[in-house]
Amino acid sequence: MSDEVATVEARVRPTLGAIASIFARYANTTFGGGSATIAVLKEEVVVKRPWLSQEEFDLNYALSRLTPGTNLLAFCTAAGWTARRWRGAVVALIAASVPCSLFAVMVTVFYEQLHGSAWFQAALTGALAAAVAIMLSTAWVFAAPHLRAAPLKAAVIVPSAAALSLLAHLTPVKILLGAAVVGLLWPVARPKPAPPEVAS
């Protein structure tokens, strides 16, 4: 049995209700930005519930970073599509966007009353400091599997991408496309699966 067939058989086809529940719950209650939310969703749909394989998650995440607009919603739509095609995509998008959009409207309505409050400003300062730590933690969640699988490749691409962003001021799309080309030209050999045991 090939790895691809084994992956398909190991996946679980979720119900639309389950997709709505997971994406509504975690896309609307996780703080720290889109990447932090995607890291939480990875734990839910790859680790705890095998709706997506690691390879499918990586592809969805990469595509979401290349699309304009909100990367989180692009990822949710792609993940929903992978799990249940267009119905899953629509349900995941609605579940991930509508509740937090309503919350944003409510916060905007009360912003005039909140922004002058010393308590509110202090809370924002603390939240921003924590957001930096969350971003670093999230970066490790995404990078760790690839660092272990291809440490030399990661050692070249990661600092190069940082230099292109900070020093050359290239846009994220150009850096991602360049990294994709490097990945295409520098494939990593996958370990061969162990042969099946023969019953004696």
Query: Which overall shape is indicated by the principal axes computed on the Cα atoms?
Result: globular
Distance N terminus to C terminus? 20 Å
Mean pLDDT: 80
SSE string, helix = H, strand = E? HHHHHHHH
Contiguous low-pLDDT stretches (5 residues minimum) are 1-9
Q: Major β-sheet, in short?
A: none
| Beta strand count | 0
What is the percent of helical residues? over 70%
- Tell me the β content: under 5%
Radius of gyration: 20 Å
Count of helical regions: 8
Structural class: mainly alpha
Structure description:
It is a single chain. The chain has helices spanning 3-10, 16-29, 34-48, 54-66, 71-114, 118-149, 151-166, 172-185. The chain is 78% helix and 0% strand. The chain is built from 8 helices and no strands. It is globular, with a radius of gyration of 20 Å. 18% of the residues are buried. It has a domain at 3-116. It is mainly alpha-helical and 200 residues long.
Question: Secondary-structure map with pairings?
Answer:
Layout: H1 3-10, H2 16-29, H3 34-48, H4 54-66, H5 71-114, H6 118-149, H7 151-166, H8 172-185
Helix pairs in contact: 2-3, 2-5, 3-5, 4-5, 6-7, 7-8
Summarize the structure.
The protein is mainly α. Helix content is 78%, strand content 0%.
